Amino acid sequence: MIQFILNQQVIHKQNPGNTTLLDFIRYDENLRGTKIGCREGDCGACTVLIGSLKEGKLEYISATSCLTPLPNVHGKHVVTVEGLNLPGKLNQAQQAMVDCSGTQCGFCTPGFVNSMSGYALTSKDPNLEGAISAIDGNICRCTGYKSIERATAKLTEQLQNKDQKHPISWLVENDFIPEYFLQIEDRLKDFNLKYNTEGEIPIGGGTDLYVQKHDELHDMDLNYLFDKSLLNRISFEGSWCTLKSAVTVSDLITNDTLLEAIPNWYNYLKLVSSTPIRNIGTIAGNLANGSPIGDFTILLLSLNAKIKLTNKENESRQLPLKEFYLGYKVLNKTEDEIITEITFELPNSESQFNFEKVCKRQYLDIASVNTAFTIKTKGNIIIEAHGAMGGVGPIPKYLSKTCEFLTNKTLSTEVILEAEQVLQSELAPISDARGTVEYKRLLARQLFFAHFIMLFSDTIKMNDLI
């Protein structure tokens, strides 16, 4: 039995786990403001807000409902555009869109309004860059975006005096959200939630599964509930970081320890999908998908990560992530094993990390080629190297030969040029929609050089390499 609040209404529903939140909202509840666009998490027309209790406090995220399994909102508050309406007037996000001519055909407008309202709910330091980032998962084919950016700027101005100690009350008083939001936290606390996972298939965020197997899901047994809070934790012990499997990219992009330990961490993760997908897509799901161009797979391979696999009998084993991929979509795991932990060592004063990605558009796109490297040096000697590259073979490629070649070599232009030849011997790209073999080999070369140019700019110069 799934229990949650949809706008103001408590929902009790015995629904198959393969039902998406989008279909339930539109077809079961007839709330048609949430639109069906791409059904792949790209367009943002189906964006809703999801509020959940974290350490007793209500927190909201934006999410693409087309990729959200209905059981994943168990015990939460789901807000559609209808749930943001004020009696007799527009809310601040709606009014800003009207005042700035931010809508034409209107199909995308509910998604933008939800994302803008989500920013009003979550912003701690309202600023235009953050507000624009909050709508990065919403696409409009009419306006050219400038009018929507002006509407977002207007909303940001109105948030400057937001009371951070009592945000919900302030937002209600200033016409950002309706009054019923004041009771949601207490109403969720009154829920008597039950979880049951015995004999059923667990799902992470659903952001891969619902894209790849949308039609097949109708015949799959996914009628389950489990408490993801038990698997959503980032912990640190010394120089080691451990991620539980339900950690999302948004959890990582806002983690202060990681932001401090890895320069440009925020900018790297902004290249991974969009805000609504980062909010719900799990790191373990990205790894288990087995995509040859999974962004986090490449990133974690270059950090020499290890994963823990656990079966239904709660028996666990650990293995290096680079031993997890055996062939295209073939994984080193049994059918009943799931990823429960990912562990990696943080870069230190001797090590440097860099991530590069090229795709047809800068954001919200799958890479043509992506790559990451961690390089540890002592003086001008490379004492350890871990690198990975995606889009150049049937699996996410850990560059074992290239890393072995670089180890104990002097950091120099000549060594890097030789290493690039070793790199090319490891690659086996194919021509597809994202580029020809020749193009991908060229990208591999340029991005490999980019790691050293970015990390060792005092020693390695672009003109010497190209």
From TrEMBL:
The protein's name in its UniProt record: (2Fe-2S)-binding protein
Keywords associated with the record: FAD, Flavoprotein, Iron, Metal-binding, Oxidoreductase
Domain FAD-binding PCMH-type: 163-349
Source organism of the structure: Flavobacterium psychrotolerans
Annotated ranges, domain 2Fe-2S ferredoxin-type: 1-84
Lineage: superkingdom: Bacteria
CDD domains the UniProt entry points to: fer2 (cd00207)
Presence of keyword Metal-binding: yes
Listed GO MF terms: 2 iron, 2 sulfur cluster binding; FAD binding; iron ion binding; oxidoreductase activity
Record InterPro entries: 2Fe-2S-bd, 2Fe-2S-bd_dom_sf, 2Fe-2S_ferredoxin-like_sf, 2Fe-2S_ferredoxin-type, 2Fe2S_fd_BS, Ald_Oxase/xanthine_DH-like, Beta-grasp_dom_sf, CO_DH_flav_C
SUPFAM superfamilies associated with the record: 2Fe-2S ferredoxin-like (SSF54292), CO dehydrogenase flavoprotein C-terminal domain-like (SSF55447), CO dehydrogenase ISP C-domain like (SSF47741), FAD-binding/transporter-associated domain-like (SSF56176)
Span of the signal peptide: none
